Amino acid sequence: MLNRRSFLKWTGALTGAGAAAAAFGPAGLFQLRPVNADELESLKNQGIEIKYSADVMCPSECGLEMWVKDGRLTKIYGNKAVPFNDGTCCAKGASGIQLVYSPDRIKYPMIREGARGEGKFRKATWEEAIDYIGQKLTKIKKEHGAESVIMDAGDVTDRDQYWRLFFAFGTPNVFEHGSICDTPRRHGPKLMLGGKRIEPDLMRPVSVRQPDGSLQKDMTYKSKLIIYVGWNPFVATRINYESRGTLAAKVDNGCKIVVVDPALTNTASQADLWLPIRPGTDGELFAGMLRYILENDNPNSLDRRYIDWDFKKYSDGWDEYLEAFKAWWTKIDPMTKLPYFSIEWTAARTGISKEQIIELSHMFGSTKPAALVCGMQSPGHHYNGYVASILMTTLNVITGNFDVPGGAIDTEITKSDKGGSATGKDFKKKKVKRTINSTEVEAEIEQLHMDSYGDWPVAWDDVIGDYPKCFKEGITLKYGKFKGYKYPIKAYIQRTGNTVMTGSAPYRWIEALTAKDASGNYNVELVVTVDTLYLESAVYSDVILPEASYAERMSLCDIYPSHPLLYLRDQVIKPLHESKIPTDIMNLLAKKLYDLGDKDIQPKDFWEKYKSQDDFVNEMLKPAPGRYNIGQPLPYPNLPEGYKLIGTPDSLEAGKVTIDNDKKEIKGDSVTVEWLRKNKGVAIWPMSWHRYRKLDATTGDYVANKVFPNTKSKLVEFKFSLYADLDKKIQDGLGVSSGMKDLGWEHLPSTFYWFETNWNPYTNPKYQKYANEYPFQLIVGRVHQSMTATQMLPTLAQAPCEGTWMPLNNAFEQEILDANPAIKEGYEIKTKKFKANTWCVGTVLMHTQDAEKLGLKTGDMIEIENPLKRTVKSKVFVSEGILPGVVKMGFGTGGRFSPGLGGTYKQKDYTPSHNELIDPDSLSPLMGMPTYADMVVKIKKI
Amino acid sequence: MPAKKKRYGMVIDTRKCVGCMSCTISCKMENGVPFDGFRAWVNMTERGEFPKVKRNFIPRLCNHCDDAPCVSVCPVKASYIDDDGIVLIDQNKCIGCGYCISACPYSARYLHEGLQVADKCTFCTHRVKAGLEPACVHNCMGKARIFGDLNDPQSEISQHIARNGVQTLRPDLGTNPKVFYVDAELNNLPNKGGK
């Protein structure tokens, strides 16, 4: 494109260096990219080294090209070899240098001097800090058992070293941030597909097997309709390709884009249609659509052939589901006095007109391929989100859009496997003894799990939102061999993440982390933070360990592509200050525990096995891709269909494999760090669709292949076997959980169910009384620029967003890393004065009509109060782009009281912390997720 | 055949802009632009009434005008158009008088705080010379930006211009920009000039 000299050289290396696909498709069908060999030469001459790595500042973890000169990171771009982001890189990704060289980083280990929360620490050596942690952990293990220690690996994904260490130490209570992300949204896909994240088929390029046997990069978009409900890929996503893909499908393929959201998100703004919906009623919309589709489907009509009845071949339990769904049609809703799921009921509940609901239902039924995608801002954050995500999955499946080209893909079950035995999960199988009522019992460590065997038997993603209560009350196990066993939580080890701000209400966390016993000792004896940045949770820690930033350590991406794809987060510069890489921190702490006499920690499992981070990542790579040779076109026609694939793309391509017919497994050469480095950091396996079916040679018909999806029956399950298995345990002695009791359930349902959300005066009779006094529904959405840590980057204060992250600051002074091309490093740390309205801060988005009623204009200060009498202050941003009666805040944008937040810290007194206003006791009943978007508030000008 | 002279330009297809401001920040990180300055930015304007409301994104940068007012007003000839049609500033010659900054009808120039010279988009000429795209094009999340040689009818940019209706910002000014937009509403939006 740039340069004719390079116009004729192309990347043929779709599957890695060795497997150049020789035959290229006709121009126009496949867009191939030029290789610029000579340009790389000219950079080398300037002393620039190009390294391929992956981001970690948001969970999208895009593939990056990083330039290093004289050992210093100088430039960051998207890696064009990675199809997940195809060379693109957002404002935050490009700003990485400001994080790596930030003056606000944690530079050395620290030990607390004042009280927790005072923020007084002294500089310590690594030896001192590791000794402090090791001694405390040893004492706690001796007195209370290893299970009294929680390891929470937080908001990013380079977690396996920490998981491994603490599994080996003997605690099953090892977590990551998923349980405070969007568990109700994942629920339907998990039950019905064994998956998690339904996304539109928008990742391009994809490598596709051609009829002539070659592999080609396909750039064509097939989608014709995408409905995003509470999903805002342009701003809030962890799915990079939905930014370019949504608009490429729209512009290049005439795909219609509909966004259903109370607020005019950037995605809604670029859509063909924005449907503002009453918060918390996405399930209502889906139920109304499903009923309309069922009642109006006509296989004999060209434009009303909504349902693709073939779905019955690949699924189980539809009749029972349908019966349970239809049973509601005759019931009358006490709120609207209308029959459930009727168009009238749907309109009354959602605030969307009957005509628009009919149009949307018809459009979704008749347009193919289509995808219905619901996001973390809708089902993910409501008490009853399960209902919506089950209905969303149902609608995609019955209309024939599941896993078809241009349709809806569950990316959890198509992405590459990784981690393997490096994660240390096998340590959980080890048997330990505990004494219950003077009887000694022996069982596997995993039976000590605080949630699965405690209060949250259904919460397969753990329950971080309930920890303040667990810290306070301890754990009582209710099932398994250890039934009746009680233990306290005595240590909280947090590695990245920032649960004090994000894991439900901050005041609850602060209360739990500062509570003391009668003799004045903290109940939770040890709180440790391992992080690159100094966030609010670190303020409440006893010991802080500086972890190397993402550019200084090695791991693998954790992403949601539509086919197996894996890339390296390579170390591009040496760890700065006194920070260390996770593998070294793991080994240091393991060695300390071993020296203190911990027999569970063995040299062969740690420092003897993993001498470097390369060793660790190589082990993580062993199971990749771990997906199946299934679908059309078949990824590897030279290899048996339906078998599991393990190994590099080029070894599989060349058939250099061993085939195990008993295990149905095909093994080529393992992917390694070295292999990835030779291939611009990335391994790409072929795309296929219809991965649930195979051609039956005798009948010539497609039949279920019983390999995919990932449910117990390997069919789409409308009868939930996962619930059935859990319910057996519940009836078998586990007992009904408190969440189920709240719903009045004695059993987990076998199929479709319905219940109302909390704190919604318009759908749940229990809350009707709040409608007049608290006239606003409060919703929350992620602002990409300001997830809970990254707004410490000054450049991101220059990227306003959607009325919830706007340049409405008061004047202030701050030390920042600013560009200075006159010096060699290109950047210098300097103190600058910032004028008012030049720096983005967290704001509250409100409709013009509502603002007029309250006498407000943009920039005015307001106080927001909820029925729990909690208040926050904020400036208001007035816009036409939100449903009247709804106000919106960003996640973690305001009230940030850690000085590690840079300029954002200076705005803490007039910016909103949304989590102060949620109801911490309204955890969603099965998964224990904080219900971030179920709340009503009143607002006054101050 | 002797190589034909190049004439670099850019198309911004706003139908594909996601409003992420990657261009703004990628440019700052690429070109040593200090906090207060911008070589690239995005004008965001909200139009219409609920529920028919839209947030328009117009990504902005130097228009690299064929008839550039900033070049003609420069008293020391520091501003010039190079052989490939890129409007540049010779920082060694620039005295930081600010005439060009006021003369630019698109507010594309600013005074660089550290260097005390006028500064603006160069189409990342240092990258282009190495055979690479400008940073904002490489990183663009929506793939809304196309850069290339307007003199080459086979280039992606020429093809895009041929296939789509394009406009320039404020054609009435007679500056003849080489930055083109696919956006029917371009010149009906408020805030056409400033940042």
Care to describe what's here?
The complex is a heterodimer of chains A (942) and B (195). Chain A has 942 residues and is an alpha/beta fold. Among the domains of chain A are: 1-36, no CATH class; 110-181 and 420-548 and 579-608, Rossmann fold (3-Layer(aba) Sandwich), CATH 3.40.50.740; 197-205 and 218-415, Dimethylsulfoxide Reductase, domain 2, CATH 3.40.228.10; 765-941, Barwin-like endoglucanases. Chain A is 24% helix and 20% strand. Chain A is built from 26 helices and 43 strands. In chain A, strands 5-4-23-22-21-6-7 form a 7-stranded mixed β-sheet, covered by helices on one side. In chain A, strands 39-41-40-43-34-42 form a 6-stranded mixed β-sheet. Chain A is globular, with a radius of gyration of 27 Å. The model of chain A is unreliable at 1-35 (pLDDT under 50). Chain B has a single domain, classed as Alpha-Beta Plaits, CATH 3.30.70.20. Helix content of chain B is 19%, strand content 23%. The longest helix of chain B has 10 residues, at 22-31. Chain B has helices at residues 22-31, 69-73, 99-103, 125-129, 135-139, 156-163; strands at 8-13, 41-49, 52-60, 79-81, 87-89, 110-112, 117-119, 145-149, 179-182. With 195 residues, chain B is an alpha+beta fold. The mean pLDDT of chain B is 93. Classes of the chains: A alpha/beta (942), B alpha+beta (195). At the A-B interface, helix 1, strand 3, helix 2, helix 8 and helix 9 of A face helix 1, strand 2, strand 3 and helix 5 of B.
